[in-house]
Amino acid sequence: MHELGARDRLATTRCSGSFAYLPFVMGLGQYCHRKDAEAAALALTGIADLATGLAVGTQSAQGFENPAAGFALVAYQDLWLAGIADMRIDRDLSKGLLYAPTDTLGDLVAAPFNWEVMKQPKVWGGILGAVAIGIGVTLALDGVPDGASPGDDANLFGKNVSPALGYPGAMAAFGGLFSHVAPAEELFFRGVVQSQLARHHGEGIGWVGGSLIFGAVHAPNALILPKEDRRDYVTYAVPVITVVGSYLGYLYKSSEYSLAAPTAMHFWYNTLLSATAFALDPQDSPVSASFGIGF
Question: What does the domain layout of the chain look like in residue ranges?
Fold first, then answer.
């Protein structure tokens, strides 16, 4: 059914799906492929993300280093990636290619809150295990930061606010960002990269190769971190991200190439790890004075 729908849409396109590659015309590729609901959602969300990022970046004293601007612009970038990957997968489906996922963008945004997805032991168990590893590596390397004050007032986008506002606000910020990041990265790294490798070289190579590429692509994130943290990030964080990516690839493969399970785990891994860092030191976290997220 999904393959037939994609084939019918591509046989009656309004324009070229290549328009998805234009970063300032969000959703146009989906409009060309007659995916009107997805086109509208991408366009409206993209306008909100870009407008927020530019408004904060141009009006804040910190400029685009203000984490509110950073969050919005990273979200916009991932929305663009999701649109491109969605178009590529739509073409794969129309050709009846193996390992092309059939999840819609709506399915993936809802996946972290979908009980049928979250109740699977391989999903919630994977989340708990990955978060434990991430926290363990962080504490082993740095310990609890000197001067950290868990439970005290929070620095939320450069402003001190009470815990009653700061903690829910930080969680909402992380949730908003990673609701973009998780679907986009899963569509691209699993839905496009792993599936493409699996078609040409076998499922095992697809899984391993996709995981290694996932880890390698995260290595340049070290450049947005303070210089003193970059070596540790490449030495320790990138291997952890690669391992987490390999488990996400396993979820994808073992779920008959559905992206719902890896997207749900990806979202909660990033969100809970960020929330833990915030709880340990609410004055110095990814939503405090400057923007820098390495995962």
Answer: 1-97, 103-295
